[in-house]
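Purpose: get a first structural picture of the assembly so the mutagenesis plan has something to point at.
Setup: two entries, given in the order below. No constraints added.
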Amino acid sequence: MNSSPILAGLAGVLSSAAPILFAVIGETISELGGVLNLSMNGMILLSAMGGFAASLATGSILLGFLAGAAIGALVSLIVAFSSITLKQSQVAVGFVLALLCRDLSYFLGSQIMGQTAPRLNLLPIPFLCNLPIIGPLLFNHDIMTYASFILVIVSWFHIERTTPGLMLKGIGENPRAAYVRGANVNRLRYIYTVVGGAIAGLAGPLYSLSVKAGWKGTISGLDGIGWIVLSITIFGGWTPFRAALGAYLFAFLQWLGLILQPVMPNVPSQVLQVAPFPLMILTLLLVNISNAEWMERSLSRLPVPVRRDILKVLHSLNAKPPASLGVPFDDES
Amino acid sequence: MIVEFRCISKAFGAVKANDSVSLSVPEASIQAIVGENGAGKSTLMKILSGYLCPDSGQILLDGKAVRINSPACALRLGIGMLHQDPLDFSPLTVLDNFILGSPSRFVPNRRKALEDLAGLAGRLGFSLSPDARIDALTVGERQQLEILRLLWLGAKVLILDEPTTGISLPQKEKLFVALKTLAAEGMSIFFVSHKLEDVESLCGKAAVLRQGILAGTMEQPFDSKELVRMMFGKDLGPATRSCRENGKPQPCFNLEVKNASMDGTRFRMKGIGLQVQAGEVIGLAGMEGSGQELFLGACGGLVPTSGGAICLGNAGKAMTGRTYHDFQGSGVGYLPAARLEKGLVPGLNLAEHYVLANRMPGFFIDRDKALDLADSRIAAFNIKGGPESPAESLSGGNQQRLLLSLLPDNLSLILIEHPTRGLDVESTIYVWAKLKERCAQGASIIFISSDLDEILQYSDRVMVFFAGNVTPPLDAESLNVQRLGELIGGKGWEALQGKKEAHQENKELEHA
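Result (structure tokens, whole complex):
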């Protein structure tokens, strides 16, 4: 089954990207509805700690994941309440929550640090896992990694192919028009923010019960993931498949850092560990660079055929956020 | 459906937007609702379409009193409203917009919707590509889509709010034919407008609102003079003649565009040349999105040119590739069509606008001085508002006056998108009087308008845009509405000597 180390490594990329995928899809759903949930970083840490604690106390992995989802839903309920009902700035509230939840997870988790909780087992799919190449790559994972594959497809189907999905895009794009077409905009925003938060909340336990099993407080290595999730959401252009591509790219870069370490002993290991973060942000910049006016101005100096091709590529990469992202909706006036 | 308003009243604070308005509209008719800005037309229509609840009074449909709580509720009762800026979703496709909000299954039946869309469009003579994205459509096409959608959802009463602003002449004709067809089929149509010629050519009846009160009604044939008197409570003189009366323009150039080209999203414009003399007014005509916005932007440094040169002033200062700030520094002013969004700062009051517009030197703001300054500008430009009123509280006409009053004194070139869009007759006359003052002082004006009469009346020369093709500047006196309308619709271009080549070249580029 473990035919080659590279294949095993790539399979590892798929499973280590799974928590990022949950978080990115959750955030994408919330942002499509028009609510920017900036608390992601703290939310992942808190749900990782909470999920770990729940599963430690009960011995049940399922309860660990449920606790994670509940924490995600609760934190995003705060975001939803303050932005939809109180009409406060989503950036301010989200940012404060990101910091608060992070420190809360360190504080509350200090007692369970280093203990051993149940761990998610591999669940090879019979017959399929024996297929050459794709067997070990796709069908030898834990259940949540399979779930992450399915989540991408299901969320894509919901957003792109169903009536409620169309309305989801509508309330984030032009809530007034959605209201005229009979949507209860604020209720839908509540639902999608909380559902998105619950999905993203699964990312935490997925780390602490599987990908980076255990809770080690500040050295858990989870701080910062949430910010990358936010940038992958932008990279993904608010579409699940492109978001998945972003998540896999990030996980791939992290894996590359690991395997390059023995090859390049001169480079400090910290550089290779941290490199995926700036690389991801750089990719994001490149993808959306054609939005910038100076880019257009400087491109206008190039000869026409060259410029046209460059522009074509840039425009196809470029994605626009939902037009009413972060804007509260009031059906009066 | 018979629609009856009974003693509808609605007040916003101390202002009575509707004061006991009663009106009955029969089936199969087109009813015009006219009045100047702020007369209460849109309040009345918003009450009918469920946006606002009246303070008192009733609405009866086919003789039955109804309560309309929301736009969705209005649509269930068969009342659909087409907003001035169609309420749609720009990144979605035509078909998605058509489906969105319809009571359909979990997974919508796209094939059925597609058939229905094509069927309805065919019946009304509209042609819409179902896969096109809304942001690639003109306002006229978006209106057509909204009408089709409302019909599909079973609307029997259609409200159109200023539907002819921002759409081209051919689109307007198409719209009117469709509306007449619908009325003949039994639909009741409300046509809200301040364009009397549109009302006269389309509507069977007109109701005039003035300061919230129903000032009177009139049936075909309309007496324009009487309508104007009802709207304003007084006679208005005919709009004054163009700036050409200022005598021969001095041989002094304010702008020279040499062989310029620009890239639009759907076409490339090239070989545009124009010399503008001091005191001259140039009108840019064409369907929305035909390239006139690009050209006007390029004249102000807002749109980068991809070839040719743009020079300012008599000395021919080369400005190609410079930013808007450089253009501003050289005496260019730009007034956008989205007055509040692009031209003003919502949230700041009038006095603060004057301070921002560099009318007051110094680092610290002298409040008293700022208020005095604002007072004098407000009086000079006859703006209905005080120094402390926020910019967004002004009506469209007053926002345009405010923008004019913010322009620096020593401009040599003023660029304007739709100078009088959405303005009533009085404000229109006022705005142009102010602009002509500028011309008399030696400034030049280039403006975009979709109102052909405005183009012909105020321009010295006219450039017509059609899908990225541009006519050379044509003398306005050699044009009439008919000819201009044809050019805008893409007819009669072959007769324009010298432009034929460029026209064909562009065609080839489009195909490539």
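Residues 5-317 of chain A form a domain with the ABC transporter involved in vitamin B12 uptake, BtuC fold (CATH 1.10.3470).
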